[in-house]
Amino acid sequence: MEIWINPACSKCRSALTLLDAEGADYTVRRYLEDVPSEDEIRGVLERLGLEPWDITRTQEADAKELGLKEWPRDAGSRDRWITALAGHPKLIQRPIITADDGTAVVGRTDEAVRDALAR
């Protein structure tokens, strides 16, 4: 299991606290320092069953600067969104937990973190 975190994020810290309390075996990836490649983002999206705009933090300054709210959300624009996430990792929703069964969750709630643990 791997968890993508921003240590400054309270949701990330809560997820780590819960994983530790449950005795989970996991690896931490500080994705702002160890930026995922476009292929890694594609892989996580597949595991999540989501599209890139579903995991984009559209209220971030970078998102506003790029005008992401106006970008089309369709198959033809998918790669453009992925490129933006790889180029501006602050835009990636956090924390993302990749479960041992090959799936992933956005662990913003205790329930989502427990769901990842159960997989």
UniProtKB/TrEMBL annotation:
Keyword field contains tRNA-binding: no
Q: Which domain of life is it from?
A: Bacteria
Question: In the record, what terms sit under GO molecular function?
Answer: arsenate reductase (glutaredoxin) activity
InterPro entries referenced in this protein's UniProt entry, alphabetically: Arsenate_reductase, Arsenate_reductase-like, Thioredoxin-like_sf
- Please give the CDD domains that the UniProt record associates with this protein: ArsC_ArsC (cd03034)
Q: Name one Pfam family in it.
A: ArsC
Q: What is its EC number?
A: 1.20.4.1
UniProt keywords (A-Z) are:
Oxidoreductase
Report the family membership.
Belongs to the ArsC family.
Q: What is the official name of this protein in its record?
A: Arsenate reductase
Provide the species name: Streptomyces luteogriseus
